[in-house]
Amino acid sequence: MRSTFAFSSSLLALVVSSAALAQAQPQAPIELDEITVTAARADRAIADVPQSVQVLNREQIEDQLKQSSSAAAALAKLVPGYSMPTQTVSSASENYRGRDLLVLLDGVPMNTPLRDVSRILALIDLNSVERIEVVAGASSLYGAGATGGTVNFITKKATDGKPTVSVNTAIRGFTESLGRSLAPEASVTVSGKVPNGFDYMITGTGKGAGRTYDGAGRELPSDGLLGQGGGDRYRQGNFFAKLGYDFDASKRIEGSVNWLYFNQDPKYLTNYTPPFARPDRTAPYTGDSVLEDTKSFSLRYSDSDFALGKLSVLGFYNDIEKRFNFSTFSYPYNSQVYYSFNPASPTSPANQTTLYSQRGGVNVTVDTPLDRLLPGAKFTWGGDYIKEKTWQTLTNGQDVFTPLQQDTLAGFGQLQIPIGERVVVRGGLRYEHFALSVSNYTRPAAYAAVAARTPLGYQAFVLPALNVIGGDFDYSALTGNLGATVKLTETSELFGGFSQGFALPDVGAFTRRAGISTAYACPVATPNCLPTSRSTVSYASIAPEAQIVNNYEIGIRGSYDRFKGSLSGYISTSDEGVTFDQITNTLSQQKERIWGVEATGDYAATDNFTLGTVLSFREGRYDTNGDGRLDSSLPNNRIGSPWRGMLYGSYKFVNGMQLRVEGEAFSDRNVAIDLNGTRYRLKGAATMNVALTAPVWAGEAYLAVNNLFDRTYQNPTGTSVRNLANYAWGRTITLGFRKTF
Questions:
Q1: Which domain holds residue 509?
Q2: Which of 104, 446, 483, 575 has the greatest number of C-beta atoms within 10 Å?
């Protein structure tokens, strides 16, 4: 951490000396607009929400778009508690407060909960987004999956009057090899309103990428995370269209279409042997491309003059296809593959999977004022119904986990009561019922290995095809929340409370790993040795337990004079947490606890110069042997680097130019993750980013440099996926231009 603190001190000295260039002038306090969020499924002032809430506005989004088009990268910089991004298409091991993040687009859930493959966040198009609302801590108000928090990407509203056109173009590249790494992108947004008629907003974005490099000039692999997809050699297109109509001042109907398409063509397989993941130039990639084809449709009706208050009815449908990398056997990083029945080349040519998910639902929310009973009191209530079907196949069509269908029915009520002029109490309950239908299926034969004293360092065996017997299963849960805010001044408040989130932990992953045990294994020489009595397993015997997460939090936020910020601490507990062991390729559930501290701060030193920071600490432990004691630290794919921080300075010159300097740093982690004392060290590092913006041709031109000093360092989140060193991006440079006509 010494280098981290030295770096931060140097950066602070740099930005403070820059501020001295500003002309001395009397400074007025910063005037803050009241910000409302949809954290309670109805518009609420942040001052009334007893949880950590952060809103990233359009200006902050545009600042980050200058440096990266990834939504995950924006959250990692600006939201304390969110992990470092993998810098790939995948969010594997990315998490919020060590747990899952529920991703919403205009309130529509984008996750695939029956088989959580962590690949959506980095692909959301920020060009269509007006603001990002992040609610920290477990919550069930938007349904299952928000055990760590909820992020809602809220798209732009249509502009009034005749059409306006906004264009954003950029070209990015690595200074190591600009020609081979060029990544162009362009986005166009058309928006307007027909007099006394429909309003519309349409955004189309296209981009691509060449090779990627680390700070030492080494080309990065296309699949350093094993099967998830990389950040190189891809083409991506995003299309978003929203059409709305106001029947009158209170009634509105709005429909939207969102299409996300990503296609990556790796050139080489990946060498996963130490010291780090890298392209294997002796093994050309022979699989199909990596694909993401997600279509989402929604229709919303709102009525602010409804008899019982404000009414919102949202219907949605998601059609999702995700194809992953082809990979081959590589012990211990890829110690299990689908079997070719050729021991000399054990990987099946079909060892590449595609996930399909179809998910539709209706959400009804009513926000009822209770002024007649108690002035200022409100009761938000409603219900959800979701129907989904999920399956995953090899390229030859075989299922790799049992096809799943699930119906979810839920009802909720949330009461908000003011007590005097300074205190607001909020609490509520949600009851959720899951009806899960598990189909019978045959898990394909697999080739696997475990550590052993042999010349190869492992012992190989065969897992013969296994029949998994399904059935119908019900899950249900009652979750609640209770908290309060206490106004200290007109612009600051204390907040604190208790909240719960609910999730079914990746049901598909458990069935995919059915019978992954030496009890179901055969020698390679006799691959079909199992007796009939051990060729079948029931889903009931391997089904995961439903997970309820309890979140306790206390904090303070607000503004004083020219400063605004927040500080909070939290503890998150669960009895059925989920841990993945990449060596044994198994999933387990256990008791766990995570705790942390988060802070944000912004100080307007002058009208032209602003300083800001985002800081966080998190750590966690879990029960590794079922005795109820939290005896080991959670693995790196749950926690990663405990300390993270970003410090920035932004200066606006009198000629309209703006300079932004960012310093990012994260700490080491070297802890025992089991009773054997197993440790996988993550190395800390620090880096700097710079962006310069200037008015050009009635628009805005920008030049941004990430990893200014071309530091060579391990990406802690990418490394956490398989406990194999994955290096972060080296120096990249972006040249762009945006303008609104």
A1: 2-740
A2: 446
